[in-house]
Queue: 2 jobs
Job 1
Amino acid sequence: MSSSTPSPSSTQPARILVVDDEPDLRTLYELTLLREGYRVDAAGTLAEAWEQLEATEFDAVITDMRLPDGLGLSLLQRLHKSQRAERCVVITAYGSAENAVDALKAGAFDYLAKPVDLKQFRAVVASAVQLRARAPIALPTAVAEPRSAAPSAAVSATAPAAAPEDPWPAALVRLVGDSAPMRQVKARIVKVARSMAPVLVHGESGTGKELVARAVHACSQRSEGPFVAVNCSAIPESLLEAEFFGALKGSYTGSSQDRDGYFQAARGGTLFLDEIGDLPLAMQSKLLRAIQERHVRPIGSTQEDAVDVRIVSATHKDLQAEVQAGRFRQDLFYRLNVIELVLPPLRERREDLFALCQALLARIAQDSGQPVPVLSARSLQVLASHPLHGNVRELENLLHRAMALSEGDELNLDPLDDLEPLASEAEEAPVPAIEWDAATVPAPAPAGDRTPTEGGDAEPAIPPDLQHYLDQKEREILVQTLRATGFNRTAAAARLGLSLRQMRYRIARLGIASPNDEDG
Ligand SMILES: Nc1ncnc2c1ncn2[C@@H]1O[C@H](COP(=O)(O)OP(=O)(O)OP(=O)(O)O)[C@@H](O)[C@H]1O
C-alpha cells in the first residue's frame, strides 16, 4: 500500500529518516521500509540525524527515544521549533507510558513501544506518510489558536453578522458558533486532528462534546475510516468486555456467533468513548491495557487483534477529582488526557445563541418537513435570560417543543410555560443579562408579567393540550425524584423503574438540569 504513496513534494516514493543507534534494529527498520517501497536514510545519533535533516526534506522521521547524544524528544522539539513538516514517530522503551505521552504532547504524530510489532510499524508509517501527502487543513488566518490560555474578551452580541462564506473547513461547519471560545475550540480541533494523540473532551452535558469528537475525526486523515461512538455509561457492566473487545461464538451465555467489539469496528478510524468517567474500575484496567499494548483479545479467543484506532474520549466529570477520589485510574487518565479540549458551557458563549437557534431550527424543520419558523425577538430575549444549564441540548429541546406547539410562521416561547427554571437552580446560578442589539430585539416582558408556577391554581379537569400537560407532569415527577435522591440520576431511575438510559433521555428531552450533574 505504501509503495504507491508518493512524497508530497514529488511523484517519487516517500522518503523516511530512521534514527536508531542499535545497528541491528536500524537495519530491521530500514529493510522493512525498503520492502514497502520507501526511500530510506539512516542515522545513529541526534547530530547525524540533524545533519541529514538540514540537507534533505523527509516525509517522516522515525526515531528511537534514547540516543547516545540525547533524547529523541529533543529532535522532535527541534523539528517543531524549525517549523518542519516531517511527521515524527517515536519508539519508546517497553512499558514507558511517560515517554509515549511526553512524545505525543511534544507533537509526535504517533509512538511505537518496544519490542516493535512490524505490522504496526508499517501501518503507523503509512498513515504518517499519507497524512503528509494530503493537503493540511488550513485555519482561517483571523482565527489562529491563541498562544495563551487566557480567556479572551467576550464578543458583543451586537457584533457584525458572520461573513457570508464560512471560513472554516467543511468538517467544522456543523459546529455552530463564532464566539471567541468557539473559535479557540475549532482552531484546536484542526491542530489536534493532525496527530494520533488521544484527546479528552471536557464539558458540561449537552455542550456538544460528541460533535467536537466527530469534528476531530472529520479533520483527521482517518476521516474516511469509521467513527464509532460508545456511551460508556449505557452499557451493563457484565457486557462491557465483549462490547469493547469482541467475543467468539459460545464464549458467554447467549453469544450465538462471533462478534467484533468497538475496537475492531473502529479499525482505521476513531473510537469515541463518551462518559468515560462512568467506566467501572475493572474495565478501566482492561482499556488501559488495550491502549498500552495496542492489542485486544476477544472473549474466548487465544489470538489478539491489533488495535488501529484513534481514541477520543469525553466526560462532564472532573476526572482529576475522580482520580483523587479513587474512582478513576490515574494511569488511564494520563493516557487519555494527552490533549485536553475544553468545551465551554453555553452561558459563557451566549453570543452564539442566535446562530445556534437558527441552525437548530433549520435542522428541526428539515427533520419534521416543516418550513423554518422565524424566532420572535422576544423569544430570543427570553432564551438569552434563561440559565440553559442543559446547554445546547436543552436549547434544542426547547425549540423542538416550541415548534411542535406553535402555529403560524413565528415561533413564540412562553417564559412561564416553557422556560421557568427550577427555583433552586435559578437561585444557585443567577444569569448575567445579555446585551442584545436593541434594534433587533425588543425589550423583554416586564417582570410583573411573570407569575410563579408553583402553589398555583387547581389543574383543569381536561387539559387543553394533552402533550404539554403530560410533559409538565413528567417533569414534576422527575424533578421530585431527582431532588429526593440528591440529583443522583442512577438512583432516581431505579426509584421510577427506568433504566439510566431512559432517565437520561427524559432529562434531556425535558431540559431538566441538575445542580451537581453527578451520578453519585
Ligand atoms: N455548536 C453546536 N452547533 C450545533 N449543534 C450543536 C452544537 N453543540 C451541540 N449541538 C447539538 O446539541 C445536541 C447535544 O450535543 P452533544 O450530544 O454533542 O453534546 P454532549 O456534550 O456530547 O452531551 P452529553 O454530555 O450529554 O453526552 C446535539 O443534538 C448536537 O447536535
Job 2
Amino acid sequence: MNADYLELSDVRVTFDGFVAVDGVTMTVPRGDLRFLIGPNGAGKTTLVDAITGLAPATGSALFGRTELLGRKVHRIVRLGIGRTFQTATVFENLTVLQNLDIAAGAGRGPLTLLRRRSSVPAEVEEALETVGLVDVRDKPAGVLPHGQKQWLEIGMLIVQNARVLLLDEPVAGMSAQERADTGELLRRIGAERTVVVVEHDMDFMRCFADSVTVLHAGKVLSEGTVAQVQADPRVQEVYLGTAAEVGA
Ligand SMILES: Nc1ncnc2c1ncn2[C@@H]1O[C@H](COP(=O)(O)OP(=O)(O)OP(=O)(O)O)[C@@H](O)[C@H]1O
C-alpha cells in the first residue's frame, strides 16, 4: 500500500489575529502532480510554511500516518518533506557536484563530510541525470543560468530522499525552453513522489498539472482537473482581472 501521500485537514495559520490559512483540507496522492494556485495573498506560501514547520499551524498535516504539524523544521526534512523557495538556495561557490554531495551527506558527520570522496555516490550520479545537469557537474553553481539553479535545488532534495516536494514558483523568470524542460522534470520526479507546485503561470499549469487546488483568502475555493477548475465560475470570478488567461 502506498503511504506516500499528503493529507491536510483543517489547517489553519493565524498571524496576530489575521487568518492567513483558514481551514484547508486537501489530499495529494503520490504520482499526482498537484498545482496550488490562487491570487496574491491567498495563503499558498503560508500553507507550505505550515507543512514544513516554518509557520505555527493547527489542524493536521499527515505524511502517510505521520503528523507533521508541531514538529521542528529539521525533523520534517528528515521525514522526507523537501521544499524550494522562489529564490534558489544553492552554494554558489561550490560546484554542482559538491552541492549535491553536501545535500546527500546531510545525515553524515562534519568530519566525514570534509573527507574527499574517491567516487561519486550512486544517488548523486542518479540525481545529476534526473535533473539534467551531468554536463555542468563541475561548474560552480553560481555561474549556472537561473533554470539550472532551480533544477540543482530540486536535485538536492532528491538526494536527500525527499518523498514530498513542495516547490514555490519553480518556473518564475525562466525562458520558454527552461519552462518546458522543468515541466518534464516535474513529471519525471512526480511519478514516484508527491509533488505540490505553487504557481502563478497559468500556461505552465495547463500543460503539466494533473490536478489543481485553488486557494482564495486562505480557503480552498475549488479543486479538480485543469478543465474542471477552469470551468468553475467561482474561480473565474476570483481571477476576474485575469479571467481570460485562466479560461483561455
Ligand atoms: N509572517 C507573516 N506575518 C503576518 N502576515 C503574514 C505573514 N506571512 C504572510 N502573511 C500574510 O498572509 C497572507 C497570505 O500570504 P502568502 O504569502 O501565504 O500568500 P500567497 O498566496 O503565497 O501569495 P503570493 O502568490 O503573492 O506569494 C497575506 O495577506 C500575507 O500578507
